[in-house]
């Protein structure tokens, strides 16, 4: 029974941390939201947990390496580049791609039982997502209201 509680805690924490980051993306009108981030985080927790159950040393770390390298493909799927006549040749949704990769890292942390670390990382990510855009606007004049809602980042 204690194992079941621990498994539920790991997977629940992973889904919660990923979902919180996804909620920020939804509130900012981005293409990847709560479900995607929560599923990525939960799936990574499951894979790392399962890797830790495999015989041999270092299985979980090899699984984590594969996850974080492979997640680049999912992140690349949300990055858009405008082309064609009149296009500004700008790139969109890089931050969202980074949050997908970050959700994977949160899932890995939860999968190995690092709940406090995952909670601190989730809070830090939210602070960065909320505060950094204001800093960019204040000091660099970038990211006006249009880009905050999914417009181009050049």
Overall average pLDDT: 82
Q: Strand order, biggest sheet?
A: 1-2
H/I helix tally: 6
Q: Unreliable segments (pLDDT under 50, ≥5 consecutive)?
A: 144-154
Rough shape?
elongated
Helix content class: over 70%
Topology, number of strands: 2
β content, as a range? Answer: under 5%
Along the chain, the helix and strand elements come as HHHEEHHH
Strand count, sense and closure of the main sheet?
Answer: 2 strands, antiparallel
Distance N terminus to C terminus? Answer: 53 Å
Counting structural domains, the number is: 1
Structural class call reads mainly alpha
Gyration radius from CA atoms, angstroms: 17 Å
How does this model look, in words?
- Helices cover 74% and strands 3% of the residues.
- With 154 residues, it is mainly alpha-helical.
- It has one domain.
- The longest helix has 26 residues, at 2-27.
- It is elongated.
Short description:
The protein is mainly alpha-helical and 154 residues long.
Features:
single chain; 154 residues; two-stranded antiparallel sheet; 6 helices; 3% strand
How are the SSEs placed, and which strands pair?
Blueprint (H helix, E strand, L loop, with lengths): L1 H26 L6 H20 L5 H20 L1 E2 L9 E2 L1 H18 L3 H26 L4 H4 L6
Antiparallel strand pairs: 1-2
